Amino acid sequence: MINGILGKKLGMTQIYGKGGEFLPVTVVQAGPCVVLQVKSCEKDGYKAVQVGFGEKKESRTTKPLMGRFKKVDVPPMSFIREVSVDTIEGIKPADKLTVDIFTPGEYVDVIGTSIGKGFQGGIKRWNQSRGPMSHGSMSHRAPGSVGPTEPPHTIKGLRMPGHMGNKRFTVQGLEVVELDKENNLLLLKGAVPGHTNNYLIINRSTRKKKKAPKPVSAAGVKKINPLKQSKKMMKK
């Protein structure tokens, strides 16, 4: 069984849950992906499947990559990554992966690149406090002391202004709310890293298992006396 798939972030929206509540969800186009290579323990030392997502022009593909795509007889792909598998039996190159490898109620881990924000100060980058805003202050948003004087040096790992964002980031334990198998759409509860049209790696979560409904017994339901409740409200 293949434990992951590649996709693209389309944006966020809101849907109604089963209890009528609003759920913030991220719409991800997960697949269709094409299996490019199957790696085995005998030949490569580990089990994995290399898949590709998103077609691109042949004129924008290098000749070595084009040779790999022609060997499998698939069009050139713009996003190629490896995903883990439980077993490689029955998986062969040129197989297609769709969003139906997941089920609603399942949890996934999403890997993506966060939005780059350029060079930022310590207040925005690390949520540091600003200085006094009075007339005599000369350091409203400037950083304070960055190290001791004896010996004079800057402590390693000090939070200072610098480049913010544009890093590989993983969000764990996102619930799969709904699937649209016709359009290969995946609705995940919560936010995923990156901007719109950002490529993502969606893996089956190893920490959380599929969400199961909890049975509610009559003995566990607390009975409320409306007469006592109204008396308490009148005393307040």
For this entry, give a set of tags.
mainly beta, 3 helices, 4-stranded antiparallel sheet, 236 residues, 11% helix, 6-stranded antiparallel barrel
How much helicity do the residues have?
10-25%
Strand order of the largest sheet: 1-2-11-10-7-12
How would you state the average pLDDT, rounded? 86
> Which structural class best describes the helix and strand composition?
mainly beta
Number of strands: 12
Give the CA-CA distance, first to last residue. Answer: 60 Å
Order of helices and strands: EEEEHEEEEHEEEEH
Cα gyration radius (Å): 26 Å
Question: What portion of residues belong to β-strands?
Answer: 35-45%
Low-confidence stretches: 218-234
Major beta sheet summary: 6 strands, antiparallel, barrel
Net shape? globular
Structure report:
By secondary structure, this protein is mainly β. Helix content is 11%, strand content 35%. It is built from three helices and twelve strands, in the order E-E-E-E-H-E-E-E-E-H-E-E-E-E-H. It has helices spanning 63-72, 122-126, 226-235, and strands at 4-16, 22-30, 33-39, 48-55, 77-83, 96-97, 107-113, 118-120, 162-164, 168-180, 185-189, 199-204. Strands 1-2-11-10-7-12 form a six-stranded antiparallel beta barrel. A four-stranded antiparallel sheet has the order 5-4-3-6, covered by helices on one side. Strands 8-9 form a two-stranded antiparallel sheet. The model is unreliable at 218-234 (pLDDT under 50).
